[in-house]
Amino acid sequence: MCDMATTRGELGDKLSSLSLFADLSAAELESIAHIVDERRFADGERILRQGLTGSGFYIILAGEGIIRIALVVRGSVPGVDAETFAAKADEAKVGCPVSKALAGVPEITLEAKLTG
Fold it and tell me: What dihedral angle (degrees, nearest 10) is formed by the CA atoms of 79, 81, 83, 87?
């Protein structure tokens, strides 16, 4: 179990250990630490539910977090066939900052389809 930070500086130190924040300066980390609230959740407590509108951003420092993400992309792109669209969607995942931040998620699926 991860101990909660007692100061904003300690919270900044915890954030600095995450790849999402690795390139930030100490001052930038401290600024972020001042606008976040640290919370502890009970074992098995659900933090998010699929389909609900989000109002926050969670960073899990200890325990298990997201175990599955299923992305569905629908688009209409003139001059692009369905196979090319699906291939480009898969290519977009490689090197994407969000994909890198979610690298620890055990299962991420992507369904990309053209509409119309």
Answer: 20
What confidence score (pLDDT) does residue 2 get? 61
Question: CA 85, CA 38: separation in Å to the nearest integer?
Answer: 40
Q: Which two tokens stand for residue 31?
A: 């600024």
Let me know: does 99 contact 63? Beta carbons within 8 Å. no
Strand segments, DSSP code E, in the chain are 68-75, 107-114
Report residues of the chain scoring pLDDT below 50.
none
Report CA-CA distances (Å) from 9 to 23, 24, 37, 40, 69. 17, 14, 13, 18, 32
3-state helix, strand, coil in the chain (%, to 5): 35, 15, 55
Q: How far apart are CA 71 and CA 108, in angstroms?
A: 8
